[in-house]
Amino acid sequence: MRYDESNLLIRGTDRPTGRLNGVTPAEAGWALINFEVRRLGRGERWSFDTGEQELALVLLGGRANVRSNRGEWGPIGERTSPFDGLPWSLYLSRRSQLEVEALTDSLDFAVAWVPSDEDHPSRLIRPADVKVEIRGGDNVTRQINDMIPAGFDCQRLVVVEVYTPSGNWSSYPPHKHDVHKTDAAGNLVEADLDEVYYYRIDPPEGFAFQRIYTAPESPLQRAGQPIDAVLTARDNDLVLVPEGYHPVVSAPGYTTYYLNVLAGSAQSLANTDDPRYAWVKESYQARDRRVPIYSLKRDS
User: Fold this and answer.
1) Is there a contact between 243 and 218 (Cβ–Cβ < 8 Å)?
2) Which residue from 18, 101, 107, 110 is spatially nearest to 56, judged by alpha carbons?
3) Which parts of the chain sit beneath pLDDT 50?
4) Average pLDDT for the chain
5) How does DSSP classify residue 120?
6) φ, ψ of residue 231 in degrees (nearest 5)
7) Strands 178-182, 175-176: parallel, antiparallel or unpaired by DSSP?
C-alpha cells in the first residue's frame, strides 16, 4: 500500500451520537489495529464481542457502566473531556462480550482491538493506576498518561495519552518503530509497531501538524514506497503511522491531545530517534510550567 496525505489522515465527525471516527486493518493497510471512537447519549448502549482479539477501552468523557462476561464495572468515569482529568480505561482479553451503557447525557469512548492467541486477566485501570510523566523540556515539554504501558499484562496492546501545550512539539525528537531489532545481547532496541493518533484539540477549532517520513531502513522505503507527508490534524481526526518518524507540533493558542494505540512485534515502545535531531534532548534548559495541564487529583 502506498501512503500519502490522502490515506494517512482520516477526518472525524462531531455528531451528537454514533461513530465519530475509526479505521480497520484493511483500510489502514496493516495487520493488527482496529480502532473506533464512539459517542452515546444517556441510556444508550453499545455491545461488542472481542472474539479472538484483546481489547482496550478508554473513556474520553462522561460516565458509564460496563458489563461483560469478565466482570461488571461502574459507574466509571469522572472527566467531561480529555482536558478535564485522568482517564478510566478497561482491558479485556480475547473471547469477551461487553456492553457499554452511558450514564451521562454524552459519553465519548475509544475502543481498540487486535488479534490475540493468549489469555490475560481483564482489568479496570483507574486514574490512581495511571502513571503520569512530564517528558522533554522547553518547547518540547509534554504530558504522557500511561494506561496500558509497555510491560502491562497483555499480549500486544500499548495505550497512552499525550498532551502538547500551545506552540510545543511532541513525539520529538522524531522517532520511529518500524524494524524489529535487538542488540548483541538479545535486548530489544526497536520494535516494529503500527500506531494510531486520535486527536482532540482545546478549543476545538484549533489544529496540529504531524509529519510522517520514512528512514532508509524503513521497509516501505526499501520497497520503493517512501512516506514524506505533512498532515493537518483537527479535533476528532485520526492519523495512521504505519512506518517512519512522526513528530507533532501544536498550533499556538491551542492544547493538543492525542490518544496513541500501538501494536506489533512486541508489547514494547522500543524506538529509534532520527539521529539528525536526537541532540535536542541534551539542550533543554527547563520544563514548561503549563504541564501538567490539569490537576492530577486522582480518583480511587
Assistant:
1) yes
2) 110
3) 300
4) 97
5) -
6) -115, 145
7) unpaired
Dist CA 152 CA 163 (whole Å): 22
- Residue whose grid cell is 535536542: 280
Q: How many C-beta neighbours within 10 Å does residue 133 have?
A: 14
Please tell me the predicted confidence (pLDDT) of residue 235. 98
Question: CA nearest 85: which of 127, 141, 123?
Answer: 127
The pLDDT value given to residue 130: 97
* Whole-number pLDDT of residue 300: 47
Distance, in Å, from the CA atom of 274 to the CA atom of 278, rounded to the nearest integer, reads 6
In the chain, the amino acid numbered 295 is S
Q: Taking Cα atoms as reference points, which of 59, 196, 86 lies closest to residue 145? A: 86
Q: Which residues contact 200 (CB under 8 A, 6 or more apart)?
A: 60, 81, 82, 83, 235, 236, 256, 257, 258
pLDDT tens column, 182-206: 999 999 999 999 999 999 999 999 9
Cell of 159: 495505550
State the pLDDT at residue 296. 86
- Residue 295's pLDDT is 83
Round to whole Å and give the CA distance between 159 and 42.
Answer: 27
SS3 84: helix
Nearest CA to 150 out of 158, 141, 162 is that of 158
